[in-house]
Amino acid sequence: xxxxxxxxxxxxxxxxxxxxxxxxxxxxxxxxxxxxxxxxxxxxxxxxxxxxxxxxxxxxxxxxxxxxxxxxxxxxxxxxxxxxxxxxxxxxxxxxxxxxxxxxxxxxxxxxxxxxxxxxxxxxxxxxxxxxxxxxxxxxxxxxxxxxxxxxxxxxxxxxxxxxxxxxxxxxxxxxxxxxxxxxxxxxxxxxxxxxxxxxxxxxxxxxxxxxxxxxxxxxxxxxxxxxxxxxxxxxxxxxxxxxxxxxxxxxxxxxxxxxxxxxxxxxxxxxxxxxxxxxxxxxxxxxxxxxxxxxxxxxxxxxxxxxxxxxxxxxxxxxxxxxxxxxxxxxxxxxxxxxxxxxxxxxxxxxxxxxxxxxxxxxxxxxxxxxxxxxxxxxxxxxxxxxxxxxxxxxxxxxxxxxxxxxxxxxxxxxxxxxxxxxxxxxxxxxxxxxxxxxxxxxxxxxxxxxxxxxxxxxxxxxxxxxxxxxxxxxxxxxxxxxxxxxxxxxxxxxxxxxxxx
Length: 503
Hints:
The chain has a single domain (5-274, 320-469, 476-501), classed as Beta Barrel (Porin). It is built from seven helices and 21 strands. The protein has helices at 5-17, 35-39, 53-56, 205-210, 275-292, 298-311, 376-382; strands at 68-84, 87-91, 97-106, 113-131, 146-164, 169-190, 198-200, 203-204, 223-246, 251-258, 261-273, 321-332, 335-343, 348-357, 365-371, 388-393, 399-411, 414-423, 442-451, 456-471, 486-501. The chain is elongated.
């Protein structure tokens, strides 16, 4: 069967459009990109036997034995828990994340040139919780659970090429398009200083909200709104350079570099609902008025406070819910990796990768730009005309990941595998919170392959990301509700791949 470049690109484009949400494994990156490589712990930089080299070390494509198509599918099932002062240990929603991939590589022993085209699920993260927040209560004072939700999906795909300089040395490059989507909704807290509008001569709304009641303020150290971000999509570019070297027929080594990928998410929509915060402030103001005027009824106090807000330019009849146009910026990290593979016998092979990931220069913050805000009350309090920018703190730390594994050929048609991967948790205690809990560190894997025929192979693997627990610092950089909170994450990931040799 003949496959033209046009056919392959059409298939790859379809997969890119059909991207689904994935979840973090090491940070936001997948451990491996096929069942075959996951089975040996994800080690593939120095192992030159599959199309996943387009993602890990394009130089290795020069040593493929022939052309092949790989179809990869994974199903990730994360298990999340969270607790803080308002919530006993609470389970996150059980989500099922399908992770597809498809790749074609063209290689021949007669030619030093090899190339490939493919699309892979690169990574992401996501979570759903229903949690109590002290600010959100009904009229009787009972807590009303709020939805905490995030989804970050990243697909990567394009072309790769390798050239075999000698019988032992091959170099390669990948030029990939990155496609990503982002959603986020939860109570969002900021310092009162963001409210720069003038409440009264010599005092901004931020100063008024932060000042203690004895000085005519509300005593808030942060202000909170229900925030939602939807419809965000981004395209970026990722380049890879790889070197592959065959020391001999049993021992191979490789090295690769992956560039950072700046992403600007456009065409998004955001909502900001400050109703709960304003109601709480209004209630405090009414209580303060009644304490200063003991003969006043509650209705009289409410009318007086409504008048005071009106004098500050706040028309309570218009509420405090705004819609915005949204743009967000983020960057996927650069990385450097080395790997090796050693065949101890004709049946037993070992593999190992070590990779450095530069999270600190990528996930230091998430830039958020909002424009065309529709609510005059919020604009008045923030002191703008409906457009402003802010940075969401992340402060992730660089990580070193180690992946190792072994495979054993039981009979020519059956291979079994086992692996282990360690990736340092990049999320600091100061910014860990429940909907971005990319904190797992230890992974164990098992897998197997069955060569159904001489050209078709089926590969399966199971990956368990062991439960990891992280306690947030006090204070938390994200919000007070996360002070001393505990986030937990465990993942079950099931992998299957189908390989079709076109030798």
